[in-house]
Amino acid sequence: MRLTAQTEPPDLAALSTPERASSERRRELERLASLCTDRERTISIAFDEERAFARPAEGAGPDAYEIVLPTEKYEQPGTELPPGLWDRSIQVAFLFHELGHVYYSDFDRFGDCLERVDGRWRDLFRMVYNTAEDGVVETQIANEFSVTDDFVLLNDVLVSRADERHRAYVDLFDLATADGEPVQSYTVFEALAVGLLDRGFVDSGRFAAIVDPDDDRRVVYDGQREALVDLVPAMDEFVADVLSEPDGTRRVDRAHDFFETARDTLAGLPPRQNGRLQTAPVRPSDARARAGWTADAADRLPDDGAASAHVARDRAADDRSASGASGAGSVADPDEDRRPPGRVEDDTVRRVRRRSVRAQSNRAGSGRSPLEREARHLLDVVDDESTALEEVIVVDPAEDGGDRDRWDDAVGRSKQLQRDLSTQLRRERRPRDEPGHRTGRLDGRRLVGASHGAQRVFTRRESGTAKDHSCLVVLDRSGSMDGEPIRTAETATAQLVHALFAVGVDASVLSIWEGYPCLELPFGGRPSEHVDRLMTERADWGTPLSTAVAVARERLDDGRGSHPFVVVVTDGAPDHPDRYQSQLAACTVPVFGVYIGSEPGTHTEYFDRIVHAETDTLARTMQRLVRALFSTEA
């Protein structure tokens, strides 16, 4: 993004890449998946705007899978979770849901059965199997890991989204209302999907309302309620069977049996009943034909009795609704606790809407990323007529993600610098005995002076200082740096900013590229999240050091850190020496130069302190400079 006088502040919101879509979140989820899977399976994570599903990883072996997770924003249905915690909870729930399919769903057998189904009925078979299997894998995974609340949350938000879209459809086409509320109509196909879901992991109460003859706001389309009610006994038996069936292949076969029952009912109804009319699918459509997809036994499902009791509980509510006994109370109480079937039956699952999140409230924020916040500061610099700065570039991330291997190597090599800086900062904060006071503890070294009447012969214990350091690195990406120099400079910069970040020193990287100052790492940003900007080997055009120093001065002169400093990594002289000298003279922060390939003793007039290095000694030279700087500050 180019920041100019014409850039509007609202445009900068595009720089706040949601954390849920960041490379750091992807790696976090991959680490979580690796901890929850055996050594034989490898799980990688990819993102998609809306979809969630699992598939074999291409070219990575028979036990490698890729789980695709959605990055879209899911609205909270009545909760007050901080945005970051909310997004993470949703993605963790999707991750474990898909892990359940990776381990326990026999998509190979599903593909075989799907091929034998007539094309007209394939959507029905896919829906029957997918909705029932969702309840199975969530029950199994909830009994393996502590993700019950995450699944409750996920089901709650998907139901809320489905209802919201359904009501929007009714409003859009000005369809029927009851007491001012939209009437949500379901085809038998749509109602069947809701009924199977409500007999699975969590009962939303929607199916009970659909079959309730006294509920005017959820109805079966075209008056086909009796056809749906006739399917209820078969639904109960089917869901109870699959919820207690550990074998994934037999679950597919059982789903095919029930599909045939449902197909026979729908075959006698108008064609519109075999499809979606007012509702849109909001759950992941996981069921896909996959050759060679093996399924483990789901050994933590409830037994026959527990599964039947779970379904019978829902069945009793449906019976009351069908007979009209429950009236307006047919919709589930939103505050009622729900217990998924299986070994967590005795654990109370608190409804998400009643969750207390006060302890997490400090994690809430404005939603602006460090990159957006820094861009807003830079836009103020561009808009300031006194700076005569026409443009600043916020670098777009490289499509290949940057050289991650070189970054990891740089991080490993920075550990000694990190330890040294940490030691020096601890020494800086350590209490000290300061001599020369009139009161305190007598200083033995000043006894002679005391005998001659001197009064300042005492020491006093003074607390150490906690200086607020910050560092801005200016990286020269001019054409003369192309090749090995820029690779080396990037690696040295990576080592420096990672070590500084690790010891709590705020760092930013501003490069000079294509004639403009370019923001690569913002203050407040985590360096590891900007590898796709820092490790790209970009180098082109000239060396406008005066412009870069002007931007650095504006950013650091406004009070960012009580002890800020600038490090310039370059191989050439400023393109406008006089202008550069004036900018340097106006700086109230120290500017240090690291020169590549120049003779010692040259370019000294351009910096408060300068060091010279060859390409193969650049990293060590930068580290010595920073160690010396912190030692002096301490």
TrEMBL record:
<feature type="compositionally biased region" description="Basic and acidic residues">
    <location>
        <begin position="336"/>
        <end position="350"/>
    </location>
</feature>
<dbReference type="Pfam" id="PF13519">
    <property type="entry name" value="VWA_2"/>
</dbReference>
<feature type="region of interest" description="Disordered">
    <location>
        <begin position="1"/>
        <end position="27"/>
    </location>
</feature>
<feature type="domain" description="VWFA">
    <location>
        <begin position="468"/>
        <end position="627"/>
    </location>
</feature>
<feature type="compositionally biased region" description="Low complexity">
    <location>
        <begin position="322"/>
        <end position="332"/>
    </location>
</feature>
<feature type="compositionally biased region" description="Basic and acidic residues">
    <location>
        <begin position="430"/>
        <end position="444"/>
    </location>
</feature>
<keyword id="KW-0614">Plasmid</keyword>
<feature type="compositionally biased region" description="Basic and acidic residues">
    <location>
        <begin position="311"/>
        <end position="321"/>
    </location>
</feature>
<protein>
    <submittedName>
        <fullName>von Willebrand factor type A</fullName>
    </submittedName>
</protein>
<feature type="region of interest" description="Disordered">
    <location>
        <begin position="263"/>
        <end position="372"/>
    </location>
</feature>
<feature type="compositionally biased region" description="Basic and acidic residues">
    <location>
        <begin position="401"/>
        <end position="412"/>
    </location>
</feature>
<dbReference type="InterPro" id="IPR036465">
    <property type="entry name" value="vWFA_dom_sf"/>
</dbReference>
<dbReference type="InterPro" id="IPR002035">
    <property type="entry name" value="VWF_A"/>
</dbReference>
<feature type="region of interest" description="Disordered">
    <location>
        <begin position="395"/>
        <end position="444"/>
    </location>
</feature>
